[in-house]
Amino acid sequence: MKPSRFSYKRPASWDDAVKLVLAGARPGAGTQSLGPMLNLRLARPDTIADLRHLPDYAGVSVRGDTVRIGAGTTHAALEDGVVPGRLGQIMASVARRIAYRPVRTRGTIGGSLAHADPAADWVAVLPALGGVAVAFGAAGERRLPLANFVTGIFETALAPGEVLRAVEVPMLRDAARWGHWKFCRKIGEFSKATACLLDVPGARPRAVLAALDGPPMVIDDAAALLADPTGEARRIVAGCPGLSPWRQAIAEAALRHAVQGARA
Amino acid sequence: MNAGATGFGVGAALRRKEDARFLIGKGRYVGDITRPGMLEVAFLRSPVAHARLKRLTKPAGHEQQVFTIDDLPEIKTIRANSALPGFRVSEQPVLARGKIRHVGEAIAACIAGSRAEAEDLAGACELDYEMLPAVSDMTRAHLPGTPLLHEDWSMNAFLETHRNDDVSGLDAIAAAKVTRTLRTSRQCMAPLEGRGVLAEWDPRLEQIIVTTSTQMPHVTKSGLADCLGLDEGQVRIISPDVGGGFGYKGILLPEELVLAQLAIRLGRPVRWLEDRFEQLTAGANCREHHYVITAWADEAGRLLGVECDAIVDAGAYSSYPFGACLEAAQVGSILPGPYALPLLRCHTMSACTNKPPILPYRGVARTGVCYAMETTLDALARQLGISAEAIRLANLVRPEAMPYRNLVGKVFDSGDYPEALRRAVAAIDVPSIRARQAKGEAVGFGLATFCEQGAHGTSVYHAWGIPFVPGFEQAFVRLSPDGILEVRVGVHSHGQGMETSLAQVAHTILGVHPDKVRIVLGDTALTPYSTGTWGSRAAVMAGGAVAEACRQLGDRIASIGAGLLQVTRPDVVVADGFVRRIEGEGSVSIADVARTWYRAPQNLPKGVDKGGLEVTAGYRPDPDTGTHSYAAHAVVARVDLETGAVVLEDFVVVEDGGKLINPMIVDGQVLGGLAQGIGTALYEEMPYDGAGQPLAATLADYLLPGSADVPDVRLEHMETPSPWTTFGQKGIGESGAIGPPAAIVNAINDALASIGAEVTDLPATPERVLAAIAAARAGKA
């Protein structure tokens, strides 16, 4: 199938981008999700605002203990180590298992997060890493916690007229332990269960269970999970409504494996 | 003339000639071809499975760009009849007329300058229909009270078949008896290139030229002429490079007929390119089987009999030319497999449901039947406490019995079936797997053996009474003035490397270097009639025809060459591109013979054959009941008890395709089929809901195995020549796709044997595997 007719705009400034979006334009980044949706005519925007040429849309900068990652930074750039330090290692390990390299060279961290597919990798991982999403609207920048940025299936905390400009994630010490596990039947398949766990010495361990039929579940204090992975995983998953026995089983497995990974 | 010795002939692992263009992206497919003034077509397709179509309102101002069946009354319905007794023939309108019978059924053709605009038109049409209850469960489709798809039928079934051997006494004498209910999922074939059609009217020739991605151009031509009421001479089918066929491209599509009639009507070229959404939701359906199967064996594992009730979901229509029963009606004849089975009781039903028509897919019926038989054998072996190898060895037809006629009348030509099995088992370290199992590891070893009838001809197919019957295969060969050999055949190549294999055959007979052999395929105006490339027949049939034509041409070349050498015909042979005296010095090149015929006829010897250097010759093996290649597949699989995921640790194939014309191409055929077989076993599934809606509309939902999901396969060959074919070659194109589901599930079930769990339904998804484990544990508790 081919897309229905749309106009293509390439805003040169963030203000222009916001004006377009306020007027109903659909923001486009790497179009790895939007492209198929256009072709299948599931999305029929009048206008697409291509964000890829905005200043500082892609790229990484470190300010103090925080790394700011431009929303247009590709998975491939993250895979290739554009983020420094322990955080960069973790993000690279996540990025290299997103779909296929050709997808990663176009798909972006911000596009994926704003699209808010429950099975997407950054939707699961960023809430565990903490930090904030930087939204840009008519009133300028606004910071939203990543822990509850994704609010539902294809739903985020972005207000109408806002676009996602960057994410700001705290840098991690080398001692930070990390576990991440997802279940895909084949490379490139959407995850059917994802879990990750960040354990920084001296801080509360944080876990996320995602690829559910809704927003990711953030477990703010995962100490119990670390102490009793099997029992606690069962308890957590039992609290997720509507999962088939198999989805429950792999969700529990995901949590256990995330713990294992963080302990390894 | 042992061409293998020259390194170019039959038996040589020659690199494929056609890859010179494919590897640099210069293949030419329908989608690469445009014409001045060409219009694009998009089809408005049904969103519902079963409905009465009341009215279609065309978008205002664009009425002339939208065509329904009422606008194209010239096109007859597609009727793919069968002579099998009791067959109910369907009338398939090329665009829905009065009734809608499956989601995706074409209702109107919309024409515009671009595909996107044509889709806009389709989206702007308003459909008014009255919903009818959908028939989506093949096991219940035939029940009284079910709404009828074809209202003049008495039940929703194309055909039932019966074979009624008496198995009633077996309970009393059998040492073991098992019954299993098994299911294979509906699949969609997924050739890299979809279907595509470009139709244009040639006013000079008064001919409709249809460039279409088909593997059977001549059969398509006949079907198209029939349905459009044209003389066959008014139809030319061109099939350029074809990016995978697998059976899907043997089908005469309603879309082909609509496009041809539109081109005639409009006097402008029109094109339709199938997209993946159409392919998945409206087109390439295949393989949905349901079995209730019982088998009895004695203490040694020898089969005493099999009883089987099989249903195949044939969808809404009987597709042209193979019909709706190619799968179900073959279950009974394929079930005995490579085994000496004494008794078979079998009932089959080709159920008619609100789904797209079932089409033949590589392996046709055998993949499902092999799955049913081989998993049942393993269940018997488990009950008897004997090995999977032992139960097969107890039943395989023995080499000294060849040629062997089995209880359903199939004749196996040659081979050592037990040896293939022994080699496959020997290639696996079975004791180490048993040791791992003893430590509690969920790892298993699985086997499957089967044989593949290929290149079966007239004597087999005339009884089916479908719209075509394969007869003598023909090849046209011509020696050009420059000594280039041109070979024209009516089969086609869609991945099989025919341009190479047939050049090797020609080289074997005439000694012309394969680089100097031009193979012409895929154009009904240029090639002799053939039913095309299907049924693993091209190497045997076209290979035989090319050899025969080259032999006859060689005789003419030899006669002229002898004259030029001033000796007689018996004094010379044709070898290595020369006519040579058998005794004494003296030779003349084939190119010189050609030059003499065309450019210096004054030098031709007296009494020369006036037919010159062009020959059309025909070939059919005798008997033509088909070659039987065979294979043993051995698999090591590990099951993750936590998630149900299956990892293939090892995969061994021992294959006997008779004399291999090009072993490298045969390896490619087996490996490609194997990937598809792994898809059937573990990934591919097109679920339909109760309303007849397909639930896997994209390749994100319809999973195909990727390169990382197919293990390194260890492939071994045996080469038992067929006594009936030109070089001893056998058809082998489908083999790889037949064995994997059976071997893989047998390995899974072996891994789960200690738990007592068995997988019965394909694909063996993690969810199904885990459910089987849970069911076994619940049963024990």
Automatic annotation (TrEMBL), chain A:
Q: Where is the FAD-binding PCMH-type domain?
A: 1-174
* Record-linked Pfam families: FAD_binding_5
Q: Which domain of life is it from?
A: Bacteria
Q: Which SUPFAM superfamilies match?
A: FAD-binding/transporter-associated domain-like
What keywords would UniProt list here? Answer: FAD, Flavoprotein, Oxidoreductase
List the GO molecular function terms. Answer: FAD binding; oxidoreductase activity
Q: Which protein, by its recorded name, is this?
A: Carbon monoxide dehydrogenase
Q: Which organism is it from?
A: Reyranella soli
Q: What is the lineage of its organism?
A: Bacteria, Pseudomonadati, Pseudomonadota, Alphaproteobacteria, Hyphomicrobiales
TrEMBL record, chain B:
Alphabetical UniProt keywords: Molybdenum, Oxidoreductase
Domain Aldehyde oxidase/xanthine dehydrogenase a/b hammerhead residue range list? 24-133
Q: What is this protein called?
A: Carbon monoxide dehydrogenase
GO MF term list: iron ion binding; oxidoreductase activity
**InterPro entries hit by this protein:** Ald_Oxase/Xan_DH_a/b, Ald_Oxase/Xan_DH_a/b_sf, Ald_Oxase/xanthine_DH-like, AldOxase/xan_DH_MoCoBD1, AldOxase/xan_DH_MoCoBD2, AldOxase/xan_DH_Mopterin-bd_sf
Instruction: Please give the SMART domains that the UniProt record associates with this protein.
Output: Ald_Xan_dh_C
Q: Does the keyword Oxidoreductase apply?
A: yes
Q: Which residues form the signal peptide?
A: none
Superkingdom per UniProt: Bacteria
